[in-house]
Amino acid sequence: MRQQIAAANWKMNLTYVEGQQLLNDILAENVEPKDNHAVIFGIPFPYLMMANEKVNTLKNLYVAAQNCSNKKSGAYTGEVSVGMLKSLNLKYCIIGHSERREYFNETNLELSEKLDLLLGAGMKPIFCCGEPLSIREEGSQNAYVEKQLKESLFHLSAEDMKKVVIAYEPIWAIGTGKTATTAQAQEIHAYIRSVIANQYGAEVADMVPILYGGSVKANNAKELFACPDVDGGLVGGASLVAMDFVEIIRALK
User: Fold this and answer.
1) Which residues are catalytic?
2) Residue 213: other Cβ atoms inside 10 A
3) Are 167 and 192 in contact (CB under 8 A)?
4) Is 157 annotated in some ligand binding site?
5) Positive or negative: CA dihedral 247, 124, 231, 235
6) What is the largest CA-CA distance in the chain?
7) Which DSSP string do the residues of 62-84 spell out, in sequence order?
8) Can you supply one Gene Ontology CC term for this chain's record (predicted)?
9) Secondary structure (3-state) at 248
10) Is 105 helix (H, G, I), strand (E, B) or coil?
């Protein structure tokens, strides 16, 4: 079975003390991920060391940065390099989140550069893709997501592609009042896997975890994760509530 992943994305939330307490509350539930599971905490930069110290001795629990620079080093005030993240012994980094694309104008080319730096450092990218409402309404979501994948990922070797985690975000269903059905989630996840298979073959495509990032909650996680091509979730708001995130972890296949 492919790796099944519950990834928390705290975004720009919580003070240092609140972040410590949230992690303590989750860990107090004695979550013990199975061998094919990974629980990943996407933490704001100032809290990465604190979080990593709490989980780095625990089986299948990891910390991820929420972003990285596409530059190795230099005069880029306020940026954080892959080398800096690697020096903290981090294993994962989220890149290409819809908020980064929309608010900070990140391009597919920039994301391909970030991918290369992360993979070159032995880190695993969690690569986000997904379409806005206007694209979904005109029915061109498949072509839109395929373009994101091709322009950012398809220069990779097959071996490097196996190291990438993909997170599909239906941007049109996040905070809009619209809801994506489990059938819609499975449909686009299966399509993403078919695009990877066309480029790299079925064996590689079957190894790539594809997470769902559309308002995963404690009460819908089990149904979503039961879909054959949904390999867990990239969780926003629900990851800030300890017991909600614990329930989402327990819903993994």
Assistant:
1) 97, 169
2) 27
3) no
4) no
5) positive
6) 48
7) EEEES---SSSSSS-TT---HHH
8) cytosol
9) helix
10) coil
pLDDT tens per residue across span 188-218 = 999 999 999 999 999 999 999 999 998 899 9
The whole-angstrom separation of Cα 169 and Cα 172 is 9
Rama region for 201: left / alpha / beta (φ>0; ψ in -120 to 50; rest): left
Q: What is the pLDDT of residue 80?
A: 98
- pLDDT number for residue 177: 66
Cite the DSSP H helix spans in the chain: 16-27, 48-55, 82-87, 98-104, 108-120, 133-137, 141-153, 158-161, 182-200, 202-205, 221-225, 242-250
For the cut 90, the answer to whether the pLDDT of residue 176 exceeds it is no
Amino acid, single-letter form, for residue 62:
Y
Beta bridge partner(s), residue 165: 126
**Angle at alpha carbon of residue 35, lines to 200 and 226, rounded to 5°:** 70
Report which DSSP code applies to 152: H
Q: Check the annotation: does 96 bind a ligand.
A: no
Measured on CA atoms in the order 242, 180, 252, 39, is the torsion positive or negative?
A: negative
Q: State yes or no: 215 annotated in a binding site.
A: yes
Angle at which helices 242-250 and 16-27 pack, to 10 degrees?
Answer: 40
86 is written with which tokens? 């690697």
Query: Is 112 annotated to bind ligand?
Result: no
pLDDT at 116: 98
Q: Check residue 178 and give left, alpha or beta (phi > 0: left; psi -120 to 50: alpha).
A: beta
Distance CA 31, CA 15 (A): 24
Measured distance CA(143)–CA(149) in Å, rounded? 10
